[in-house]
Amino acid sequence: MALLEVRALHAGYGETRVLHGVDFVLERGAITALLGANGAGKTTTLRALCGMVKTQGEIRFAGSRIDRRRTEDIVRLGVAHVPDGRGTFAHLSTEENLRLGAYARKDRGSIEAELQRMYGYFPRLAERRRQQAGTLSGGEQQMLAISRALMLGPKLMLLDEPSFGLAPRLVVELFDILRRINEREQVSMFLVEQNAAMALELAGSAYLLETGRVVLAGSAAQLKADAAVRKAYLGY
Q1: CA 129, CA 150: separation in Å to the nearest integer?
Q2: What is the pTM of this model?
Q3: How confident is the model over 24-82, as pLDDT tens digits?
Q4: CA end-to-end span of the chain, whole Å?
Q5: If you ran DSSP here, which 8-state letter would residue 233 be given?
Protein backbone atom coordinates (compact mmCIF):
# COMPACT_ATOMS: atom_id res chain seq x y z
CA MET A 1 0.00 0.00 0.00
CA ALA A 2 1.22 3.50 -0.82
CA LEU A 3 2.17 5.71 2.09
CA LEU A 4 2.53 8.91 0.05
CA GLU A 5 0.90 9.73 -3.27
CA VAL A 6 1.75 12.89 -5.19
CA ARG A 7 -0.18 14.00 -8.25
CA ALA A 8 0.44 16.98 -10.55
CA LEU A 9 2.60 18.75 -7.98
CA HIS A 10 3.68 22.30 -8.82
CA ALA A 11 5.80 24.32 -6.41
CA GLY A 12 8.09 27.32 -6.36
CA TYR A 13 9.19 30.51 -4.70
CA GLY A 14 7.24 33.67 -5.43
CA GLU A 15 6.79 33.93 -9.18
CA THR A 16 9.47 31.32 -9.88
CA ARG A 17 8.13 27.83 -10.61
CA VAL A 18 10.49 24.96 -9.74
CA LEU A 19 8.28 21.87 -9.98
CA HIS A 20 6.07 21.37 -13.02
CA GLY A 21 3.45 18.68 -12.50
CA VAL A 22 5.45 16.05 -10.61
CA ASP A 23 3.90 12.62 -9.92
CA PHE A 24 5.33 9.91 -7.66
CA VAL A 25 4.37 7.28 -5.09
CA LEU A 26 6.23 6.14 -1.96
CA GLU A 27 5.46 2.67 -0.66
CA ARG A 28 5.14 1.85 3.04
CA GLY A 29 8.35 0.60 4.58
CA ALA A 30 10.39 1.29 1.43
CA ILE A 31 13.39 3.48 0.65
CA THR A 32 12.95 5.63 -2.45
CA ALA A 33 15.69 7.79 -3.95
CA LEU A 34 15.20 11.08 -5.77
CA LEU A 35 18.08 11.80 -8.13
CA GLY A 36 18.90 14.81 -10.24
CA ALA A 37 21.45 17.51 -10.92
CA ASN A 38 21.78 20.65 -8.83
CA GLY A 39 18.79 22.89 -9.45
CA ALA A 40 16.55 20.06 -10.65
CA GLY A 41 14.06 20.67 -7.82
CA LYS A 42 14.94 17.90 -5.36
CA THR A 43 15.08 20.05 -2.22
CA THR A 44 11.96 21.91 -3.31
CA THR A 45 10.16 18.56 -3.60
CA LEU A 46 10.95 17.72 0.02
CA ARG A 47 9.92 21.18 1.17
CA ALA A 48 6.66 20.87 -0.75
CA LEU A 49 5.86 17.62 1.06
CA CYS A 50 6.35 19.44 4.39
CA GLY A 51 4.19 22.43 3.49
CA MET A 52 7.22 24.74 3.48
CA VAL A 53 6.59 26.18 0.00
CA LYS A 54 3.48 27.16 -1.90
CA THR A 55 2.11 24.25 -3.93
CA GLN A 56 -0.58 23.24 -6.36
CA GLY A 57 -1.62 19.66 -6.91
CA GLU A 58 -2.43 16.80 -4.59
CA ILE A 59 -0.35 15.21 -1.83
CA ARG A 60 -1.87 12.30 0.10
CA PHE A 61 -0.21 10.84 3.18
CA ALA A 62 -1.66 7.61 4.61
CA GLY A 63 -4.76 8.26 2.53
CA SER A 64 -5.43 11.84 3.67
CA ARG A 65 -4.64 15.05 1.81
CA ILE A 66 -1.90 17.12 3.40
CA ASP A 67 -1.21 19.69 0.69
CA ARG A 68 -3.34 22.29 2.48
CA ARG A 69 -2.00 21.61 5.97
CA ARG A 70 0.53 23.52 8.05
CA THR A 71 4.06 22.20 8.44
CA GLU A 72 3.62 21.51 12.17
CA ASP A 73 0.46 19.49 11.47
CA ILE A 74 2.28 17.41 8.84
CA VAL A 75 5.05 16.71 11.36
CA ARG A 76 2.49 15.50 13.89
CA LEU A 77 1.15 13.05 11.31
CA GLY A 78 4.59 11.39 11.27
CA VAL A 79 6.62 13.11 8.54
CA ALA A 80 10.15 13.97 9.67
CA HIS A 81 12.38 16.23 7.55
CA VAL A 82 16.19 16.12 7.80
CA PRO A 83 17.17 19.24 5.79
CA ASP A 84 20.39 19.91 3.95
CA GLY A 85 22.76 21.73 6.28
CA ARG A 86 21.57 19.51 9.16
CA GLY A 87 19.77 22.28 11.08
CA THR A 88 21.00 21.40 14.57
CA PHE A 89 20.62 23.88 17.43
CA ALA A 90 24.30 24.72 17.82
CA HIS A 91 24.18 26.14 21.36
CA LEU A 92 22.20 23.25 22.81
CA SER A 93 23.74 19.96 23.86
CA THR A 94 23.42 16.78 21.85
CA GLU A 95 20.82 15.39 24.23
CA GLU A 96 18.85 18.64 24.33
CA ASN A 97 18.66 18.51 20.53
CA LEU A 98 17.35 14.96 20.70
CA ARG A 99 14.70 15.83 23.27
CA LEU A 100 13.50 18.68 21.06
CA GLY A 101 12.96 16.12 18.31
CA ALA A 102 10.30 14.45 20.45
CA TYR A 103 8.24 17.60 21.03
CA ALA A 104 5.32 16.36 18.92
CA ARG A 105 5.13 12.88 20.44
CA LYS A 106 1.95 11.97 22.26
CA ASP A 107 3.57 9.16 24.24
CA ARG A 108 5.81 11.38 26.37
CA GLY A 109 6.64 8.53 28.70
CA SER A 110 8.62 6.74 26.00
CA ILE A 111 11.17 9.53 25.45
CA GLU A 112 13.85 8.06 27.73
CA ALA A 113 13.61 4.73 25.97
CA GLU A 114 13.80 6.48 22.60
CA LEU A 115 16.95 8.30 23.69
CA GLN A 116 18.62 5.01 24.52
CA ARG A 117 17.51 3.59 21.19
CA MET A 118 19.15 6.51 19.36
CA TYR A 119 22.34 6.04 21.34
CA GLY A 120 22.26 2.40 20.30
CA TYR A 121 22.25 3.37 16.63
CA PHE A 122 24.74 6.20 17.13
CA PRO A 123 27.09 5.38 20.06
CA ARG A 124 29.20 8.47 19.39
CA LEU A 125 26.23 10.64 20.27
CA ALA A 126 26.02 8.93 23.64
CA GLU A 127 29.65 9.81 24.25
CA ARG A 128 28.88 13.44 23.36
CA ARG A 129 25.45 13.76 24.94
CA ARG A 130 26.46 16.81 27.01
CA GLN A 131 28.60 18.41 24.31
CA GLN A 132 27.33 21.49 22.45
CA ALA A 133 25.98 20.41 19.08
CA GLY A 134 27.87 23.17 17.29
CA THR A 135 31.19 21.63 18.35
CA LEU A 136 30.44 18.18 16.90
CA SER A 137 32.15 17.03 13.72
CA GLY A 138 30.23 17.15 10.45
CA GLY A 139 29.52 13.44 10.58
CA GLU A 140 28.36 13.62 14.18
CA GLN A 141 26.05 16.53 13.35
CA GLN A 142 24.51 14.52 10.53
CA MET A 143 23.98 11.60 12.91
CA LEU A 144 22.37 14.01 15.37
CA ALA A 145 20.06 15.43 12.71
CA ILE A 146 18.89 11.96 11.70
CA SER A 147 18.44 10.70 15.25
CA ARG A 148 16.57 13.88 16.22
CA ALA A 149 14.14 13.22 13.35
CA LEU A 150 13.73 9.63 14.55
CA MET A 151 12.84 10.87 18.02
CA LEU A 152 9.55 11.99 16.49
CA GLY A 153 8.65 8.35 15.85
CA PRO A 154 8.03 9.06 12.16
CA LYS A 155 6.32 6.97 9.53
CA LEU A 156 8.27 8.77 6.79
CA MET A 157 11.70 10.40 6.83
CA LEU A 158 12.66 12.97 4.19
CA LEU A 159 16.45 13.01 3.91
CA ASP A 160 18.12 15.85 2.02
CA GLU A 161 21.74 15.11 1.04
CA PRO A 162 22.73 13.13 4.16
CA SER A 163 26.19 12.35 2.72
CA PHE A 164 27.09 15.97 1.94
CA GLY A 165 30.51 16.94 3.24
CA LEU A 166 31.22 13.56 4.82
CA ALA A 167 34.30 11.39 4.30
CA PRO A 168 33.64 8.23 2.26
CA ARG A 169 34.08 5.99 5.31
CA LEU A 170 31.43 7.95 7.23
CA VAL A 171 29.06 7.84 4.26
CA VAL A 172 29.23 4.04 4.20
CA GLU A 173 28.66 3.91 7.97
CA LEU A 174 25.73 6.31 7.83
CA PHE A 175 24.00 4.52 4.96
CA ASP A 176 24.41 1.21 6.75
CA ILE A 177 22.64 2.68 9.79
CA LEU A 178 19.83 4.02 7.60
CA ARG A 179 19.40 0.56 6.10
CA ARG A 180 19.19 -1.02 9.57
CA ILE A 181 16.65 1.56 10.75
CA ASN A 182 14.49 0.90 7.71
CA GLU A 183 14.67 -2.86 8.09
CA ARG A 184 14.11 -2.98 11.85
CA GLU A 185 11.51 -0.26 12.23
CA GLN A 186 9.89 -0.12 8.78
CA VAL A 187 10.35 3.64 8.61
CA SER A 188 9.81 4.73 5.01
CA MET A 189 12.51 7.00 3.60
CA PHE A 190 12.60 9.46 0.72
CA LEU A 191 16.24 10.12 -0.03
CA VAL A 192 17.59 13.10 -1.96
CA GLU A 193 21.23 12.36 -2.66
CA GLN A 194 23.96 13.57 -5.04
CA ASN A 195 25.88 10.34 -4.49
CA ALA A 196 23.71 8.42 -6.92
CA ALA A 197 25.64 5.17 -6.61
CA MET A 198 25.15 5.04 -2.83
CA ALA A 199 21.52 6.11 -3.12
CA LEU A 200 20.71 3.35 -5.62
CA GLU A 201 22.45 0.76 -3.45
CA LEU A 202 20.29 1.76 -0.49
CA ALA A 203 16.95 2.36 -2.25
CA GLY A 204 14.55 -0.12 -3.73
CA SER A 205 13.11 2.35 -6.24
CA ALA A 206 14.05 5.74 -7.62
CA TYR A 207 12.90 8.76 -9.58
CA LEU A 208 15.05 11.01 -11.75
CA LEU A 209 14.15 14.70 -11.73
CA GLU A 210 15.25 17.14 -14.42
CA THR A 211 14.24 20.81 -14.45
CA GLY A 212 11.29 20.14 -12.17
CA ARG A 213 9.91 17.14 -14.03
CA VAL A 214 10.17 13.40 -13.44
CA VAL A 215 11.86 11.99 -16.54
CA LEU A 216 12.57 8.45 -15.35
CA ALA A 217 11.12 6.15 -12.68
CA GLY A 218 11.53 2.51 -11.75
CA SER A 219 13.38 0.13 -9.50
CA ALA A 220 16.89 1.04 -8.38
CA ALA A 221 18.20 -1.78 -10.58
CA GLN A 222 16.41 -0.34 -13.63
CA LEU A 223 17.88 3.11 -13.08
CA LYS A 224 21.36 1.67 -12.56
CA ALA A 225 21.01 -0.17 -15.87
CA ASP A 226 19.90 2.95 -17.78
CA ALA A 227 22.67 4.21 -20.05
CA ALA A 228 21.87 7.90 -19.50
CA VAL A 229 21.87 7.47 -15.71
CA ARG A 230 25.12 5.54 -15.78
CA LYS A 231 26.83 8.23 -17.85
CA ALA A 232 25.46 11.31 -16.07
CA TYR A 233 25.24 10.13 -12.46
CA LEU A 234 27.27 6.96 -12.00
CA GLY A 235 30.35 7.89 -14.04
CA TYR A 236 30.58 4.82 -16.29
Answers
A1: 16
A2: 0.94
A3: 999 999 999 999 999 999 999 999 999 999 999 999 999 999 998 999 999 999 999 99
A4: 35
A5: I
